[in-house]
């Protein structure tokens, strides 16, 4: 990607974010301490983009400099997940290394081989969310066992002891972890790979 193409993408992002917020040039200019004419020339390509201008523009638009200037190459679009196997669980990481707000998305297939029971329940900071694609999940949440069927979703605080298992056959889920959940499930100690609740 050439510098000209990247500059054009940055200009489009600035204008697109400004318009998405319903802001005029004057409104954004006031928020980033630039003159409206300078901002207009940046958006239209009649002025070179300077780093000392991008930082306050990004801040005013509620984004980061990294997000404003990141590559738009197609190779960043397609994720080719690799299966990761642990006892009774196969996981596919469906989000890239640079996930939005530290969120990690994974698909999991859980079978009866996965150990379940009160001694398998884990606790970690954060929240967790999943939806059941097929089968029925047995969600142990504290003292309760909750059955979550295909088409249903569950969201809970992971400070409550929890474990996810298969009820009456294999189950497939799509799950979203926050930063703490991702660290606990995907980078835990021992055999704690994806899905090791």
How would you describe this protein?
Helices cover 29% and strands 29% of the residues. It is α+β, with helices and mostly antiparallel strands and 197 residues long. Strands 1, 2, 3, 4, 5, 6 and 7 form a 7-stranded antiparallel β-sheet that branches.
Secondary structure elements and pairings:
Elements: H1 3-20, H2 25-32, H3 36-44, H4 51-60, H5 65-69, E1 83-86, E2 89-93, E3 104-110, E4 127-141, E5 144-149, E6 153-157, E7 162-177, H6 179-186
Antiparallel strand pairs: 1-2, 2-3, 3-7, 4-5, 4-6, 4-7
Helix pairs in contact: 2-3, 2-4
In short:
The protein is of the alpha+beta class. It is built from six helices and seven strands; from the N terminus they run αααααβββββββα. It is elongated.
């Amino acid at each position: 990607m050439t510098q000209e193409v990247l500059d054009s993408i940055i200009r489009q992002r600035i204008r697109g974010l400004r318009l998405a917020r319903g802001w005029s040039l004057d409104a954004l200019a006031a928020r980033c301490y630039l003159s409206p004419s300078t901002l207009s020339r940046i958006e239209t390509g009649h002025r070179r983009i300077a780093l000392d201008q991008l930082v306050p523009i990004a801040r005013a638009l509620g984004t980061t400099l990294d997000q404003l200037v990141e590559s738009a190459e197609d190779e960043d679009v397609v994720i080719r997940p690799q299966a990761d196997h642990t006892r009774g669980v196969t996981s596919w990481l469906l989000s890239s290394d640079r996930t939005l707000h530290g969120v990690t998305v994974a698909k999991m297939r859980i079978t009866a081989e996965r150990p379940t029971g009160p001694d398998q329940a884990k606790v970690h900071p954060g929240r967790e969310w999943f939806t059941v694609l097929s089968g029925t999940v047995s969600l142990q949440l504290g003292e309760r066992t909750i059955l979550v069927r295909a088409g249903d979703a569950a969201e809970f605080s992971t400070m409550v002891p929890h474990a996810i298992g298969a009820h009456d056959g294999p189950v497939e889920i799509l799950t979203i972890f926050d930063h703490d959940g991702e660290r606990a499930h995907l980078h835990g100690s021992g055999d704690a790979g994806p899905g090791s609740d």
